[in-house]
Amino acid sequence: MTAITEFSVAIQKRVGRKRLLKAWKFLMGTVPFLFIIGMWELNTHFGWFPPIEIPPLSDVWGAIFFLQTDCPGFVAAMQQHNECNLTNNIMSSVGRVILAGFVGIPLGIAFGILAGMNRTISGYLEPIGIFMNSVSGIAWIPLAIVWFGVGWETTLFIMLNTIFWLIFFNTMMGVRAVPKVLVQGVQTMGGSYFDTIKHVFLPGAMPSIITGMRMSLGFGWRALIAAEMIGGDSGLGFMIFVSAVEFKTEEVFLGVILISLIYLISDRYLLVPLEKWTIERWGLVWKPT
Question: What pLDDT is attached to residue 112?
Fold first, then answer.
């Protein structure tokens, strides 16, 4: 009984240390944000920069409620295409990311596996993949406006173009890095083509695939905001653009903060747990970031 008790106490201490370490890491991450907020408040008090350049934090907070209720400048600028509503703009941006992710990520993984396994397919797709990855998604915005006009089609094209090629290239490189001896082992045991994909290439390339997912969604989110500024009729990027035209810097700051918070929350509480679960599922080593 004593040995069991000691073992239980040791486990509890270990869990307690992990919790303390996690809490300490969280506190360390908040320090830069607290510093920025502190300097922001000091600027409001001492007036180092005029409010038109750096508005008071209270004005940025007030913009949340203003944009939810009444903003005639927005309605005029948008020519009544959409309701003047902060929630609608947030949902427009998030909805585009979700839709582009659901379409672009599976396609990128599928073509990446095929290109990584087959040199002939790779010969066709790798050069265009390198070419497309070298061109920023923002550079396609003028052409996308000509092709699709202003609206959802343009922003979705920019998102898909960014997400697909990043996840494709990362998946292809991950598949190529899988040791050939593992493939030969499955084939020797009578495994089929799909068994090789399921039990060798997919788990072996999983770290590269997950990294590609985080990269593609991050770069895709940036490209989306730029596309909404230039070729969109709704969304956070469009909101920032209209606010900048009207010199409403508090609304611009609000848009920037919301963009950062949405991606930070989705990365920390969706992509990182997905990365941990997926990699541990295949028996690989996971290191927290």
Answer: 92
C-beta of residue 66 within 8 angstroms of C-beta of residue 209? no
Question: Which residue pairs, CB below 8 angstroms and at least 24 apart, start in 58-66?
Answer: 59/250, 60/250, 60/253, 60/254, 60/257, 62/250, 63/248, 63/250, 63/251, 63/253, 63/254, 64/254, 66/251
Q: Crossing angle for the helix pair 236-245 and 86-117, nearest 10 degrees?
A: 130
Please give the model's pTM, rounded to 2 decimal places. 0.77
How many other C-beta atoms are found inside a 10 Å radius of the C-beta of residue 4? Answer: 8
| Half-sphere exposure at residue 38, Cβ-oriented, CA atoms within 13 angstroms | 6
What does the pLDDT look like over 223-246, one tens digit per residue? 888 888 887 778 888 888 888 888
pLDDT in tens, 191-211: 777 778 777 888 888 888 888
Q: In this structure, what token pair is assigned to residue 38?
A: 């502190």
Pull the structure tokens for residue 66. Answer: 């203003």
Distance separating alpha carbons of residues 136 and 161, to the nearest angstrom: 10
List pLDDT tens digits, range 129-176.
888 888 877 888 888 889 988 878 888 898 899 899 999 999 999 888
3-state secondary structure 238-289: HHHHHHHHCCCHHHHHHHHHHHHHHHHHHHHHHHHHHHHHHHHHCCCCCCCC
Q: Which domains does the chain have, with CATH numbers?
A: 87-260 (1.10.3720.10)
Q: Is 75 helix (H, G, I), strand (E, B) or coil?
A: helix
